[in-house]
Amino acid sequence: MHKIRIEEIKLKDLKDFTKPLFNRSEAENILPISPQRVLAHAHNPSARPDDIVLLVAFIGTECIGYHGLLPGLLNHDDKASRVFWATTFYVSEAHRGQGIGKLLVEKIKALNVDFVVTGMTRAAEKTYLQSGLKTLGPMVFFQLQIKQRVGFKAFHRIQKSFLYRRWLHGQVEDFQEFRYNRIDQINRELKRSKTSARDAPTFYRDSEMVNWMLKYPWVLSRDTTTVPKENYHFAGVRDIFKYIALEIYSKRDNSYKGFLVFSISHKKEKTILKILDYHLSNSSDKKIFYGLSLRFAAHYLADRMDIPLEFQNSWETKFLQKFLIKKKKRSYVYHPASPASPLASLADNIDLNFCDGDTAFT
User: Fold this and answer.
1) pLDDT tens by residue, 317-351
2) 3-class DSSP state of 293
3) HSE-up (13 A, CA, CB side) for residue 225
4) What residue spans define the domains of the chain?
5) How far is CA 30 from the centre of its chain?
6) According to CATH, what is the number of the domain 5-138+331-350?
7) What topology is assigned to 141-329 in CATH?
């Protein structure tokens, strides 16, 4: 077996490291990261220049696998401690079964950082657990799915259109009570609703983090980019991928109601709407989010909607929707920097969120 070399790439060196890789032909090598992710990493408000953000496995000059890291924060006791999220984990098919994935994970463990993973494949989760990582969570959310019967695409579009029109019909009065503006950046402080009464630790996500995501997306829509096809395992371009950020106001007195951010993605012949970040001045106004999400889901004829746990009652009480909504669980695994690290001490009490890690980017 050829000798495997793993390089640890710091944030300050990421651009210089990847530049020659991007200049190679597609057949020469797999890419360990996409150009838009390099750009996003450079502007991460939680990152520092000396943070290691990418580990790359080489045989000679050939990239055979990689693992990304995303610096973030764990908020607890009115302070924040650092965590590193897994972002990408890939081993080329020709080199699987040789322990390269486990070697990459062991390298991360040796960094002595609080390391967390979510949104992983089952194969990746198996590797993490075999490497000694512990389970955390799971995080519970809901999915509304309008499934297509095989061979009936036209009927499926009609079915979706009918259902959304029916659901939106009940929102006419609500739409007369408020207005919304499309915005590029959030100008208000993000104060997320608690999923429990306790003041629990959370993985930190403020308005600055949301605006970073909005300005530096990891995935681009095919009609808005000229980025060529790349030999990169994780999608950098989809038929549709966009964030929609809305500020909401009362029509009656023009008072600020809150903001809502969601993503629209079309891949593998499915359109998915994900409710991401939000803030309401009054929690009783959740019906606003329900109506707006339905309006945009109807516009794009979404096949699936991912719904935060705290909004379930708005959906489950509606006719037909309760039969189309399913409870979902997303698993987490972690490795603490030490037995006394903040992540180790707080793991059993963390309130998990749909936007944890890199999940809102994809």
Assistant:
1) 565 667 888 899 999 999 999 999 999 999 999 99
2) helix
3) 18
4) 5-138+331-350, 141-329
5) 23
6) 3.40.630.30
7) Aminopeptidase (3.40.630)
For residues 245, 251, 253, 258, the Cα torsion angle rounded to the nearest 10 degrees is -20
Give strand pairing partners of 220: 237
Mean pLDDT of 81-89: 97
d(CA 345, CA 351): 14
Three-state SS string over 131-180 comes to CCCEEEEEEEEEEEECCCCCCCHHHHHHHHHHHHHHHHHCCHHHHCCEEE
Q: Which one-letter DSSP state was computed for residue 25?
A: -
Q: Exposed, middle or buried, 359 (CB in 10 Å: 0-12/13-18/19+)?
A: middle
Outline where DSSP puts E strands in the chain. Answer: 5-10, 52-59, 62-76, 79-91, 115-118, 134-145, 178-183, 202-203, 220-221, 237-238, 240-250, 256-267, 270-280, 304-307, 325-335
Q: Which residues contact 173 (CB under 8 A, 6 or more apart)?
A: none
Place of tokens 């259902």: 163
Q: Which amino acid is at 122?
A: R
Q: Tell me if 361 sits within 8 A of 101, measured CB to CB.
A: no
